[in-house]
Structure formats: C-alpha cells, structure tokens
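so i finally got all the pieces together for this one. its two components total, 354 residues if u count the protein bits. some of the lines might not be protein, just check the labels. i wanna see the whole assembly predicted at once instead of chain by chain like last time, that was a mess tbh
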Amino acid sequence: MSGKPEARLNLSKATVLLLQNNQTELDILGQVFIGFGVKAIRKCLTLGEANDCIKNGIMFDLIIVDCDMPGGVGFDFVKGVRRMEDNDNRLTPIMLVSGHTVPSSITKARDCGANFVVAKPITPKTMLDRVMWLAREERQFVVTETYAGPDRRHKTFGPPAGTKGRRHDDVSAKLGKASGPDMSQSDIDALLNPKKASL
Amino acid sequence: MKPANTFKYENRLAKSVSTKGGMSAAEALSAAQKAVDAVRDPTIAEIDANLKEIYGLGEQLKTTNAFDEDALQLMYICANRVVAMGGVFGLGELGQAAYSLCELVSRFQTMERFQWQLVQVHLDGLRLLRNPDDHAAAIRDQVLAGLRQVATSVG
C-alpha cells in the first residue's frame, strides 16, 4: 500500500446559510450540502430571511450568496454582514456564486468582502473543491474605512512603489542595506532543501 | 485615512471540517451527486420553462426589432438561470450558449443598441444544444465558437 491516506471531511456539525433568489437553484445547492452530510442548512430566498437568520444568534460556519440577485442585493448583504461588529458571523467564510456577471458587478464582487466567487453551474465537485479551499483559508481579516473582509491579497508583494503602506506589517519592496552578516551557503541550502530529522 | 485593522481569526469552517469521523471526498461526492439527482426532473422542467420564455421574448423582439430594455432584461435573467442549471445535469453546452446570450444582451444594454439577427442565432443555438446527443461534438463546438464570436462582436 502506498500514498497518503485520503483526506476526510466532516460537515455533520456545520451550519450553512444559503441565499439564492431562485427556488430550483436553491434546491440544487441544498441537495449538494445534504450530500456532504450537513444537517443544519438554512435556505433563504430573500434578503430579509437571510438577515433574520444572521441576527437571530445562529452561528454559521459557511455562508453562500447568489451574485445574481436583482439590484446587486447579494453584495450588499455580504457587505452588511462584514460590518456587523457585534456579530461573530462577520468572520464566517462567505462564498459568492455567480452566473454571467455584468461589468458593473465585478468590482462589487471584489469589494463586498466575500472570500471568493465561484462560477455557476454549481456541481458537487466544484463545491467540494471550494469548501475544502475555504477550510484551508489562512488570510487575515482586514477592516478599513472602505472594506471589511478577508485580505484580498493572496500574495504579499508589499505596498505600491513610492508609498509607505497602511498596515503595520507592510514592508517596502525597496531593499535597504543588509542589517547583519550574510547567511552561509549551508544555511541557504538548508532553507531550500529541508531534510527530515533522523533520530 | 485611518490605518487598516488587520487581524487573524479562527476559521470556523476549518474547525468543523476537521472534526473526527465524516466521510472521504469520494464518498461526499457520490452522496452529493445522488442527492442532486433527486431534483433532476424539476430542474430540467425549470430549464425548459426558461427557454420557452426566452423564445417568447425573442418573438417579441423580432416584431419590434428595436432596443427594448424590459424584454432584454427579462431575457438576460432567464438565460442566466439556464447558465446556473444547465451544467448540473449534462447540459453544459446549453449553459455555455445561454452565457453567450447573456453576454450579448449585456453588451446591447451597455450600448443601448439592438440587432435581431444576433439574438436569433443564439436562439437557434439554444434549440440545437438543448438536445446535444442529436449532434456531433464537433458541430456543437463550432456552434459555441460561433456564438461567442457573435456576442463579442458587439462593442
């Protein structure tokens, strides 16, 4: 026998909120999560129902919101949740699902504070991949005057050239003078090619 | 401008997913597919209802042959539903044709213009791809490539 054991997932105790304004799409999404073993699924067809769920003290492990709701209310919902300072659901992973996206919605999707956007159609395979991806999410949470949500930078390249940056851990891309002795070649080799300790 | 407040937080989903027990990814996928199959018939019926509405709106637009904001918006909504549902039950190419129609309508809306022939070719494509098994894969690919070319030619 070889290879590592297959990853397992346990969503039996997870609570999931689904917001979709079309009953059939909502049913498909609900069935996917039933198949994944989720027992607590809140299915909402309207913004009002979803807001009630969020404000009624239910703690969600995952929220899925349809981008294609009229008037872009899905984006507003996400934005609202992220700004609820007295509600722990503001930190819950949020996934947007989107069909065709008009140009005016692309920046809204980026700026509303969702963890990411998944293109429809939502199949079990797509959803499982994304759920596992979200479960490995390690980005920090960022709150600014104009944005609240996970850090939109998946990689840190430092602040733009010529700016100081606004975060305490922003490091300038410009290299300064060395502050200590150079690393030895063996130190560099050890960093690039780590070996298991042999006891 | 205030500095950004950046902090680490507990990923509740990660905690939930990694609790003992549960199922393998293959088991989860199989169970989910089985659960989704339970809504196959109503979903196909919903796809057909949306297609019927799209064709009806097409007739309306053909008659007026002018930019009709309301009819185009309704056509966009119906086509976007086909995008969402088509690929779930083996009608992925139909979904792609519907996506192309969404793109076309979106471009018409942005530019406030309309050209019936460009809609008509999409409706023909939707009719053809609703029954994909009746046509060879090469033909289906050509149809989709043609629709994408038509949609992106606007603007």
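The first strand of chain A starts at residue 8 and ends at 9.
The radius of gyration of chain A is 21 Å.
anyway lmk what u think
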